[in-house]
Amino acid sequence: MRRLWREYSVGCDAVVFIVDAHDTERIPEAKRELDGLLASEELANVPFLILGNKIDMADSLSEPQLRAGLGLVATTGKEAGVSVEGMARPIEVFMCSV
Q1: Are 50 and 92 in contact (CB under 8 A)?
Q2: Of the N and C termini of the chain, which has fewer Cβ atoms inside 10 Å?
């Protein structure tokens, strides 16, 4: 399916990227995929929502650990008054269990 992402991303309004926060061995793979999407010219101005899923499971990554694993230090969205000026797009990380 990943090879088809380009076909479906044209004209999209936002990207929701879900990461299994419990499967720590696959975080590098998730980072590679996310980096590829963030580098895509077609998605240059599209907001990204990163969901760290399965936080209800023991030994799941915390939000700071997931951010570090994905290389997402500077994000926007949660902090009141955070300016998105100068950033390529709005991007934020939220932890969940769905």
Answers
A1: yes
A2: N
